Amino acid sequence: MERLSDYSDIAVWSAVAVYALAFLLFTLDLARRSVLVTRAQDARAAREARATQSRTDSAGGGTAVLLDTDAPESVPTASSGPRYLRAAIALTWVGWIVHLAGATMRGIAAERVPWANMYEFALTATAIMIGVFLIAQFWQDLRYLGAFITGFVTLALGLAALNVYVPISPLPAALSSGVAPIWLVIHIIVATLGTGFFALGAALSVLQLLRARRDRGGLRRAGYLDSIPGTGRLEDFAYRLIVVGFVFWTFTLIAGAIWANAAWGRYWGWDTKEVWTFVIWVLYAGYIHARATRGWRGTRSAWLAIIGFATVIFNFSIVNIFFKGFHAYSGL
């Protein structure tokens, strides 16, 4: 089992390396999109200038011939990406498979589910994030999010392996007695799924804010923003993903309460982790309610989505490390 744990560690670092390569290729794609958009805009300006000159010459009695020799290049779409963009997606799939193998070997070596501490939860949650991103490609082309998602996962998984890694250890008594392990599995699965959907929603919201600023005449060098969907579509995508994540997070609270009753004899105890999990639920409930009934659209809804995901990160990192309570399972 010790050798299997070593293989798991190798797989995790291999996944980090593959994700880093995918991130570089996705970033290269964003740079290429900027170049193509700039060329298209220059060609359009040149055609408009020639058309204006043609009308001027015609009004003066001259004859002008307009030749459209500067047709703009097309920006990559879902069906026509360059090889390195397709390679980026392929590398993300490879990294995800290796990532899953590392998590699976960790669980087999520990003879339990691999999420008893911060390192194992980070290992599982980042795998879910990549999985949601890849599976979503079958319904919607989200490759323009690739740099954001692979970059975040590379950083998060690498930091977890460096800073919160702990050797395999048995589950704490509260997690391994009675029916608690069953509800622990349900609780963590829905929590990681919710985190994955919230991460995608936050990434789309960041792009929405950038695209809105671009539309107002800012970020002139970020031409790639003109090649992605408009702010309305980005906001709609984010909203749909966050609604799914909110459903999972609601089940996180329910399963957590049942688990708490099985482990400690009470459904709710105002433990720090419980409170912050509820705060996250309230924030996302407010986001959905404000957007659906109060007409909160545009930058306000985007910032709410980003603040919600920042709270998820705070709950996982700061609360786990610096706050004590029944949920102090960081393993550090």
3D structure, described in words:
- The chain is an all-alpha fold and 332 residues long.
- It has a domain at 171-332.
- The chain contains 8 helices and no strands.
- The chain has helices at residues 2-59, 83-110, 118-136, 146-163, 180-215, 231-264, 272-293, 299-322.
- Helix 5 packs across helix 8.
- It is globular and about 90 Å long.
Give the topology, please.
Blueprint: H1 2-59, H2 83-110, H3 118-136, H4 146-163, H5 180-215, H6 231-264, H7 272-293, H8 299-322
Helix pairs in contact: 1-2, 1-4, 2-3, 3-4, 3-5, 5-6, 5-8, 6-7, 7-8
Task: Give the gist of this structure.
The chain is mainly α. It is 72% helix and 0% strand.
Backbone structural class: mainly alpha
Element-by-element helix/strand order: HHHHHHHH
The chain-level mean pLDDT equals 82
User: What does the oligomeric state look like here?
Assistant: single chain
Shape, principal axes of CA atoms: globular
The main sheet comes to: none
Distance between the termini: 22 Å
* Count of β-strands: 0
Helix run count: 8
Helical amount among residues, as a percent range?
over 70%
Low-confidence stretches: 62-79
How much is the radius of gyration in Å?
A: 24 Å
- In what range is the share of β-strand residues? under 5%
Kindly list the characteristics that best describe this protein:
single chain; 332 residues; 8 helices; mainly alpha; globular
